[in-house]
Amino acid sequence: MAQEITLFDLPSKPPNRSWSSNPWKTRIVLNYKSIPYKTHWIEFRDIAPHFESLGIPPNAQGTPYTVPTIHIPPSPSQPKGEYIVDSKVIAIALEAKYPDPPLHLDAPQLARVEELWGQAVKALIGVLVPGVMRTVLTDRSKEYMKAKVDSKSLVGGDEAWEGAKPAMEAIGLLLKEKGGPFVLGET
Fold this sequence. Notes:
The chain is α+β, with helices and mostly antiparallel strands and 187 residues long. The chain is 49% helix and 10% strand. Strands 2-1-3-4 form a 4-stranded mixed beta sheet, with helices on one face. Helix 1 packs parallel to helix 3 and helix 4 runs antiparallel to helix 6. The model has no long low-confidence stretch (mean pLDDT 92).
């Protein structure tokens, strides 16, 4: 049996369950392509020190150390294996290494979906963060998040949902464009 890829993901309260959308993107790719993997649960506050200890270089864009990150096991061309950070970069790398079934990463709709999803999440952050802190995070991650997020600046309730509405309606139109049920139609 081939060695498994390791997916680094954030734990929930017990029992550990995947909950964050970015690691879910990678988890879906791994499952869709039937790539064997195991999950390494890592708390928010442990991400940077753990990844630094593994010699993982900081992410080129955005947060220096984050999840999802994967470790591809050693091979003759990569004797120490390979660490890849960021769900999109991971998807591109996995598509190159495991082309079937295809992900259609070159589909013109993908950039628009990414843009709209980003807008929706940004508008809903005031709903998402308190909910995640209250119902999902472990105590250790909750403490870390409280120190990082200015909860007084978060906009929630109807205002947040109204802010997300244009992006969500546009995503709905994209789903209808090719007849659904997916953005690319039946694919």
